[in-house]
Every structure is written in C-alpha cells, then in structure tokens.
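batch_manifest entry 22 of 60
target: FMN reductase
source organism: Pseudaminobacter soli
requested by: lab member K.T.
priority: normal
notes from requester: please return tokens only, no post-processing; we will run our own comparison against the previous entry in this batch. if the run fails, retry once and flag.
--- input ---
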Amino acid sequence: MTVRILVFAGSIRTGAYSVQTADAAQRELALQGAEVTRISLGDYPLPIMDQDLEKEKGIPENVFKLGHQIAAHDGFLIASPEYNSSIPPLLKNAIDWVSRIHKEGGKPFHPYAGKVAALCSSSDGNFGGARGLYHLRSVLMNCQVEIITPQCSVAHASEAFDENGQFKDEQLRKRMELVAGTLIERARMLSTRVEI
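--- output ---
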C-alpha cells in the first residue's frame, strides 16, 4: 500500500522558513515512497473562527475543502513557525475550523478521525520554533489526531538551507529522515483515508 501524506506549512509568508522546511519534508517523504500532496493554507482563506458566524452561515466551504484533503490522506505533516512561543494564528484558525465538521450531507464526517501527524518547526532562533510545537501537539491531540514522537526543529533557519533548499547540517537531514519514515510507517498501520 502506498501511503498518502498531506504536507503544508503554518505560514504563507513569502520566503517563510516553514515553507522551506515543508519543502524538505515533502522531498524526504517522496524519497521514502510516500505519495505526497502539498497544499498552502493560503488556498483556503477562512474567517476568524466564530460560533455566531457558524450558526448564522454554517461552516465555510473552504473548511470542508480542507477537511476533505485531510480525510483523503493517511496522515499529514505540518511545518510551523513559532509565534510568541505558540501556534501562529493562521494555522490555529484552520485547525479549529476543521474540528467543527461533524457531518456533511446528513452523514457523519470527521476529517481528523484516525489520522496521524508529524510536526516540524523552524525559526531563526536557537530553539528552531520547538516551543510552539508543544502547543500544536496539544491542540491536535485534542482533535483526536495521533502525533508521532520524532519531530524536526530547524534552528538558525536563515542559514540552514543550501541553494537547492537542502539542509546543510547532516543531523538535520537525519532527523527529517526519521520523521518521514516514522510518519509513513505509522500512517500505514492506521490508515482510514476517505477517497474523494
């Protein structure tokens, strides 16, 4: 069985380190035999999560589109920046909206059900955005997503990539290799993907 993995960054800023980290993850997952889909949260613009808005207008169409992407894959990998030692608002908003999906067309639909995820981070600081992953891990676990233990945090990110977007540091390359391999193995075991 070919494992299908969804990859996206928690930022849509031009030149974002998290986008470069997602690129590295995408390449490594593909090298290890996964079928990788890469998306940008910028392609799914959403209002700020608001239950009054949800009650008045329902769940936005882009939430269902993102939810279907998650449901159609065996697992996903998020490469996130760190904002004030926590989750960037763009990413938190998307996760929260998708968690509001409970049914579609009168049938139960839970995009996160049975999913496994890997977390990566990046920043120009010494910790590589790792402090934000503590909160991201907690939020996703609350959504019933299983998070693999290995993670990859890219410190001093402005100097971490060569001109081809590869990690300069061998330890970082090995870390991403471990993250990708663990995610593929666990996703294969837990697969509940829904074809769309």
